[in-house]
Design a protein that fits this description.
By secondary structure, the protein is of the alpha/beta class. It has one domain (3-183): Rossmann fold (3-Layer(aba) Sandwich), CATH 3.40.50. It is built from 8 helices and 7 strands, in the order βαβαααβββαβααβα. Strands 2-3-1-6-7 form a 5-stranded parallel beta sheet, sandwiched between helices. The protein has a two-stranded antiparallel ribbon with strand order 4-5. Strand 4 (91-94) and strand 5 form a beta hairpin. Helix 1 (13-22) crosses helix 8 and helix 2 packs across helix 4. It is globular, with a radius of gyration of 16 Å. The N and C termini lie close together (8 Å).
Length: 195
């Protein structure tokens, strides 16, 4: 079973996934961006993930997305009893504008059962981005962060309508990580029960 998990950069998606994976052996977390990066490094000389959105064309990104989808489908076939949680972005800010992070190829070729969106207050996200020196993230203002959040929700809504799969929104507030972990674990357990 494939679920897609997304969130604004700085919403704490990676931290949340790291916590949930500690207690869940039936879960395989796949970073869509890491799958893309493996090929981008070899074929386009990209050094880090955040560089892809700034240097690659829309066609190059679509090519990388298609290869990543093929690999995820292989992993699902090899692990039919596990939940495959695909960690990606709903939309990606590029110099050309927002690109869909969930591409049409994903919707056509993957059997996505649902979408999970991790978010929190925009002020918290800005502060987390300022503290995270490990990534090359844009430091946006609140207005641009809201626009990106709206774009993400628009993409997820369109995906949900297109394939008939639900979108679950989980708030990951500062200092309340365990609440978000519990909510995500409960959701994953509900999905296990339904399969």
């Amino acid at each position: 079973m494939i679920l897609v998990i997304t969130g604004l950069p700085g919403a704490g998606k990676t931290t949340l996934l790291n916590e949930v994976s500690k207690n869940n052996g039936d879960l395989i977390i796949i970073s869509f961006g890491s799958l893309m990066l493996e090929v981008a490094q070899k074929e386009f000389g990209i050094q880090h993930r955040d560089e892809m959105r700034k240097k690659l064309t829309a066609e190059q990104i679509e090519y990388l997305q298609e290869l990543a989808v093929d690999r995820i489908n292989e992993i699902e076939k090899e692990n039919p009893d596990k939940i495959i949680l695909v960690d990606t972005h709903a939309s990606v800010k590029t110099p050309y504008g927002f690109m869909p992070g969930i591409h049409d190829i994903m919707l056509q070729k993957m059997k996505i059962k649902g979408f999970i969106y991790i978010t929190t207050d925009h002020e918290e996200i800005l502060e987390r981005r300022r503290r995270d020196a490990s990534r090359y993230r844009d430091l946006e203002d609140i207005l641009h962060l809201r626009l990106h959040d709206n774009m993400n929700l628009a993409v997820l809504t369109a995906c949900s309508i297109r394939i008939g799969s639900p979108v679950k929104i989980i708030l990951n507030r500062e200092g309340k990580l365990q609440e978000a972990v519990k909510e995500l674990e409960e959701l994953l357990n509900a999905w296990k029960q339904s399969s």
